[in-house]
Amino acid sequence: MADAKVLHDLFSVVVHLAPSPVVARIPTVLPRYAGLDSLVRRQQAELDVTRWLAAQGTRVIPPSPLVPLEPVQRDGFSMTFWQFVEEGRDKEPDYVANSEITADLHAAMRAYPGRLSFLSAAEPQFIAESLALLEKRPDLIGPTDLDRARREWQVLEPLVRSRTAFERAFPGIDLQPIHGDSPPANIFSGVDGALYADFELVTLGPVEWDLAALGPDLESAYNRGARRNGMRPLNEHVLGFVNAVGMLRVIASLTLVPQLPPLMEFLKPAVDQWQTMPFAGGVAE
Asked: Which uninterrupted H or E stretch holds 108?
C-alpha cells in the first residue's frame, strides 16, 4: 500500500488504499464511554443502512464490495471499508440544495427494515459523563455556563433516553430512520454528482434531528423537499428540542479538546450562540 493516501484526519482517519478502489475509515477521537463493542455496533448499523440504501438506488457512498460487510479490529482500533469515489473538488458545498435533498433521503429511509435504537445519535451517556468531567475543567467552561448546561440536561435527558417520554411530549410527531449527523453537511460532492455519506450516527428519531442548528433558510429548503415528497414540514417545537440537545452535545465535546486542541476554534462560536438561546430550547421543565 505504498500509494495509500490520507483523505481526511480529524475525528477519524480516512485513507484511500490505492491502487485499490477502497477507502478505510478509522475513528480515532472518541468519547470515553465509547468502548470497542459499542463502536462496532454503531459501525455495523452504518454498513447495513448504507448497503440497503444503495440497493434501493439511493445515491450514497456504499460499503466496498471487495471487503466483508463488517467492521475490522486491529490494535485497539475498529475500521470500516468503503467504495472509493473521486471528489469533485471544483464544487463548493451548496447547503441550501443539500438541505432540500435531505428530505429525499428521509423519504428513502422510511422503509428501512432494520432495527435502530431511539436517538442514539444524541449520545446521552457522552453528555452526562462530560458534564461531570467538565466540573474539573474550568479552563474549558466556566461554572455559570456549566450550571446552565446541567439544568438544561435535567429537562432534556428524559426525552432523549425514552421514546415513550418523547412521544408524550411531542404527540403526533412520527419517528423514522434518520441520518443522525447533519446530512446537509455530509453530502459528498463526487465527480458524477452528490452522494449521501457518513452515516456513523444513524438512528431512529424525528426528522428535525438532521436539521438541528442549521437555521431558518436551510429549514425552509428542507420543507420544500418535504412537500415534494409528500412529507410533513419541520415542527418548531421539536426543532427547539433538537437544537437544545445539539448544543449540549457541543458543550460535551469540550471534553475532547485535550485530545484534539484545534477543535476549540470550532466549538467556541457554538458555545457563544448557545448562551443567547432560550433555556432548554423552550421545552417546559
From this structure: helix 95-109
Query: Which residue is it, cell 438512528?
Result: 203
Helices (H), 123-254: 124-133, 143-161, 163-169, 216-228, 236-253
pTM for this entry: 0.93
Domains and CATH numbers, the chain: 1-84 (3.30.200), 88-282 (3.90.1200.10)
Each residue's pLDDT, cut to its tens digit, for the chain (285 residues) gives 558 899 988 788 999 999 999 999 999 877 776 678 889 999 999 999 999 999 999 999 999 999 999 999 998 899 999 999 999 878 788 999 999 999 999 999 999 999 999 999 999 999 999 999 999 999 999 999 999 999 999 999 999 999 999 999 999 999 999 999 999 999 999 999 999 999 999 999 999 999 999 999 999 999 999 999 999 999 999 999 999 999 999 999 999 999 889 999 999 999 999 999 999 999 975
Reply yes or no: is the peptide bond before residue 19 cis, omega within 30 of 0.
yes
Grid coordinates standing for 161? 433516553
